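A.,

Following up on our hallway conversation. Structure tokens first:
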């Protein structure tokens, strides 16, 4: 009997966990190929290029993001869409990708395919993102930012005070930094402005380009 036939018979007779060695090797190789393909696809959908490949994102939030410090800054460190919206750990990343499949429905139905439609739903979309980030204690923000690593002495006085208050009150990043990368919904701004007026929050706290007025002049 030729050596090749003897080798085939040995593989077909050798059992591992109830299956032949040959079949086990086939399953193993197939598994590696399938896993590699799946992981490659996951990473391909985890890039800025992929995120803005539809005009809904490219024409709206991407244009806003390009004007922020996360896109262009003195250090040259750029945080892209996946850095802020996709978890790093594999299990949480997979769960996020599954939830993102809902976006295909809106793409097909055209629910946000114009700037007008997008802005009409901006508050609803934003609140969903804010709630998700709140529930994870701003996990993606903390991949780069750490309260413990902050040099508060180098921050503006208002920023240092707010960060110290946040630490003491157990607040998370998204509680205060909702407009850090995208335009805030007009309806949200109106509500916040009314709240600040009721609480007499100094205008200078938000409008750093304004001259600091006397407390009596703030809301007159």
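Then the amino acids I'd put at each of the 220 positions:
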């Amino acid at each position: 009997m030729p050596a090749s036939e003897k080798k085939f018979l040995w593989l077909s007779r050798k059992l591992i966990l109830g299956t032949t060695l040959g079949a086990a090797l086939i399953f193993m190789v197939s598994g590696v190929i399938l896993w590699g393909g799946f992981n490659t696809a996951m990473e391909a959908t985890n890039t800025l290029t992929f995120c803005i490949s539809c005009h809904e994102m490219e024409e709206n939030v991407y244009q806003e993001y390009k004007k922020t410090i996360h896109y262009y800054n003195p250090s040259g460190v750029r945080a892209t869409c996946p850095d802020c919206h996709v978890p790093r750990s594999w299990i949480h990343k997979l769960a996020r990708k599954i939830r993102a499949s809902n976006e295909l429905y809106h793409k097909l139905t055209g629910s946000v395919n114009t700037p007008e439609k997008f802005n009409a739903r901006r508050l609803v979309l934003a609140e969903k993102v804010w709630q998700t980030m709140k529930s994870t204690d701003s996990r993606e923000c903390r991949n780069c930012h750490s309260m413990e690593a902050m040099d508060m002495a180098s921050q503006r006085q208002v920023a240092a005070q707010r960060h110290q208050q946040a630490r003491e009150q157990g607040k998370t990043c998204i509680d205060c930094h909702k407009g850090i990368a995208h335009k805030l919904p007009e309806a949200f701004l109106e509500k916040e402005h009314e709240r600040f007026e009721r609480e007499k929050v100094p205008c200078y706290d938000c409008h750093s380009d304004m001259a600091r007025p006397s407390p009596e002049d703030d809301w007159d």
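The CA atoms of residues 1 and 60 lie 71 Å apart. Curious whether your intuition agrees with the design.

B.
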